[in-house]
Design goal:
The chain is built from 15 helices and two strands. It is mainly alpha-helical. The chain has a domain of 121 residues: Tetratricopeptide repeat domain (Serine Threonine Protein Phosphatase 5, Tetratricopeptide repeat, Alpha Horseshoe). It has a two-stranded antiparallel ribbon. The model has no long low-confidence stretch (mean pLDDT 93). This is Pilus assembly protein:: TPR_12: TPR_10. It holds the Pfam family TPR_12.
Length: 338
């Protein structure tokens, strides 16, 4: 909710420069755009506020949270604009301000701003609308980061129930924080039981949202969420389905990123199943009998195939090629992005 529907040309250019490691040039781009906006539209104008918000969004991406706080505050300080699109922009500035406070681990300020956002969204969209419901998701997440899982689950569940009643696809946006809060309060059952009857496109969207949420969550709770998610998609789609493969990859990526805190057995099982499933579907002739996976301390992966018989002709080379493709496929699947 921090970014507008379409980032400005200046922000897109700045983010590209940042991705290329050219941080100073990226800052120059958004600062120059702010000067142009001020010269053309004047102080207190909405275009200048948008330019300040772009600087703040860049600094959020750079981890310069204090700068982002100041810039989002500057973008939000003037009188409320009268038109709906500009008001929607103002709401996005406030969400950005809350994210910047959260980046500073100032969760009290973040929650205060997010509660303002919820009231703002209710006034703008209607208190019983889907957009008003989904506006509470960042608040539920911030409350969870502040170690208040019961309150977080209450907020997320209210949004979930509203969106379920409305039949709104935005329910996919609520599912990740609801699932994490579900596990944080110690619930042993799956948070995905309701999704059995939902259409595939909504299930797939929800899975993608959960995978994207993974790096933001508590590692232990996320592990439990992913275990339940894998059980759900495995039952729904079965082995070898792209969504099942994505969740297996998410488990592997999650555990690989935890270092000494990783569950090695969960990582190994996810990698082994992913590689095995890919390979046996592409290798004919019953050559492969079993597969072991081994990891060195630095994360280097070794595959140990066990053969059912002696390979014939170029079967050994084919096996090696398919195993390589299987590993490439695993690591190309959507890893949660920091």
């Amino acid at each position: 909710m921090v970014f507008a529907e379409q980032p400005s040309a200046a922000l897109q250019e700045a983010l590209q420069l940042l991705a290329e490691g050219r941080a100073e040039e990226a800052e120059t781009v958004v600062k120059r755009a702010a000067k142009v906006a001020k010269g053309k539209h004047g102080s207190g104008s909405h275009p200048l506020a948008m330019a300040y918000a772009d600087m703040a969004r860049l600094h959020l991406r750079m981890g310069k949270f204090q700068k982002a706080v100041a810039e989002f505050q500057h973008a939000s300080k003037d009188a409320m604009p009268p038109d709906t699109p500009s008001r929607r922009d103002r709401l996005s500035f406030l969400y950005g301000l809350a994210e910047a406070f959260a980046g500073l681990r100032n969760y009290d300020e973040a929650q205060m701003v997010l509660r303002q956002c919820v009231m703002f969204a209710k006034r703008m969209y209607g208190s019983s609308s889907g957009l008003a419901a989904v506006a509470t998701v960042p608040l539920a997440d911030a409350v969870l980061r502040a170690n208040k899982p019961l309150e977080s689950l209450r907020i997320a569940q209210e949004a979930y129930d509203t969106l379920w009643r409305l039949g709104d696809v935005l329910i996919a946006k609520v599912a990740p924080v609801r699932a994490e809060a579900w596990k944080a309060v110690g619930k042993a059952d799956s948070p995905f039981a309701d999704f059995v009857g939902l259409p595939d496109d909504l299930v797939n969207r929800t899975v993608a949202e959960i995978i994207e949420h993974v790096p933001n969550g508590n590692p232990v709770h996320i592990r439990a969420v992913l275990a339940d998610l894998l059980a759900f998609v495995d039952k729904r789609y079965g082995d070898g389905h792209p969504v099942t493969c994505d969740v297996l990859a998410a488990v592997a990526h999650h555990e690989a990123g935890l270092g000494a805190g990783a569950d090695a057995s969960a990582r190994d099982a996810a990698v082994r199943r992913s590689v095995w499933s890919y390979t046996v579907r592409r290798l004919t002739g019953g050559l492969l009998a079993n597969l072991e996976v081994e990891f060195e301390q630095d994360g280097t992966l070794h595959l140990v195939p066990h053969l059912a018989r002696e390979p014939e002709g170029d079967e050994a080379a084919q096996l090696e090629g398919v195993l390589t493709q299987a590993v490439d496929d695993l690591y190309a699947r959507p890893a949660a992005k920091p």
